[in-house]
Amino acid sequence: MNNKGEANRSVRATRRRLGDALVQLLVQKPVRQITVRELTRLAKVSRGTFYFHYRDIYELLDRLEQDQIDQLNLFMDALLPRLNGESEEMPTALLALFEYLDEHDAVCTALLGDNSDPAFSRRLQEVIAERCIGYLAPGGGTFRQRYLTAFAVEGCFGAIAQWLQRGKQESAAEMADVTWLGIRTIQRQIIAAG
């Protein structure tokens, strides 16, 4: 492999270590209490290396958050077409979402847990709500459709938060199943409210 490929792999590995270290620290305390010194010590990189990649810890946090939004959008791309269908069968994309949450629970807990930025949770919910309303009611929807969508999104986030807080006692499949039941129930009301 050429040097450029090696450098890219090295850059990705360094950024991954920094992101993993930030996740570990966010589980313990809010971002405002995290220093570059403790982050780089945990990631086993120099401060200079950190500043080569990021302006500050908040830029690294923004990158982590954006990565999760991008991942969520991929799940939404696969899930939304199933909402207009008549099938009662749970979409594989919803199960894949819960499997992702299960496999990446550290980053989910860090970004949605007690020490997280509430603005990020709101941003995720807005992304989901806008995508859903845009798909189910392309004209922007009625006030009833918008409130029902907000209700569904808040409910999904509440279920996910409780699942993570309880130590994921239920399987990803069980959580996807109960979430699908809620989604289908509210989805019918959103369409009827149009």
What does this structure look like?
- This protein is an all-alpha fold.
- The chain contains nine helices and no strands.
- Helix 4 runs parallel beside helix 7 (118-136) and helix 5 (92-103) crosses helix 9.
- The longest helix has 27 residues, at 57-83.
- The radius of gyration is 19 Å and the shape is elongated.
- The model is unreliable at 1-5 (pLDDT under 50).
Rounded to the nearest angstrom, the radius of gyration is: 19 Å
Q: What fraction strand?
A: under 5%
Mean pLDDT: 87
End-to-end Cα distance: 57 Å
Reported for the largest beta sheet, the result is: none
Annotation, overall tally of beta strands: 0
Give the class from helix and strand content and strand pairing.
mainly alpha
Overall body shape:
elongated
Low-confidence stretches: 1-5
Share of helix among residues?
Answer: over 70%
Give the secondary structure arrangement, pairings included.
Elements: H1 3-28, H2 36-43, H3 47-53, H4 57-83, H5 92-103, H6 105-112, H7 118-136, H8 143-165, H9 172-192
Q: Brief description of this entry?
A:
By secondary structure, the chain is mainly alpha-helical. Helix content is 78%, strand content 0%. It has 9 helices and no strands.
